[in-house]
Amino acid sequence: MPPLRPGLINLPTTPEAAQLAQKLLYEDYLSHHCFFNDLGFHNHLPHHLVVAYDMGASPGLFQSIYEELAPTLRPLGPEGEDITQENWTSRLGERK
Question: Which residues does the annotated region (Disordered) include (predicted)?
Answer without folding.
Answer: 73-96
